[in-house]
Design goal:
mainly alpha; 3 helices; 0% strand
Length: 94
């Protein structure tokens, strides 16, 4: 049971990170073309919903939102919270 839970959560985080990474890339392209943008709230919320690793990687790869310190902080805090959640729940399932 514990292994299945861990795999499901890790796959979820992987998918959320890929989605978040793509969102940063799309928003960067839209910013360059002066088109409709993805809200900052949406980018940050996607990071908190499990996409934190993809958010940070997207920031660095696309050089997008790197001047906004709170994007680093929010994505990093989200990663830490997900790690704590996984360790806590996984430890209770054993």
């Amino acid at each position: 049971m514990a292994k299945i839970f861990l795999y499901v959560v890790l796959v979820y985080i992987l998918i959320a990170s890929i989605v978040c990474f793509i969102m940063y890339g799309v928003d960067k392209k839209r910013a360059e073309k002066d088109k409709w943008r993805i809200k900052e709230q949406t980018l940050l919320m996607t990071g908190f919903m499990g996409g934190g690793p993809g958010g940070i990687i997207g920031m660095l790869v696309f050089r997008h939102k790197t001047k906004h310190w709170y994007f680093y902080v929010c994505n990093a805090v989200a990663i830490v919270l997900w790690i704590v959640f996984i360790v806590k729940i996984h430890g209770n399932l054993k």
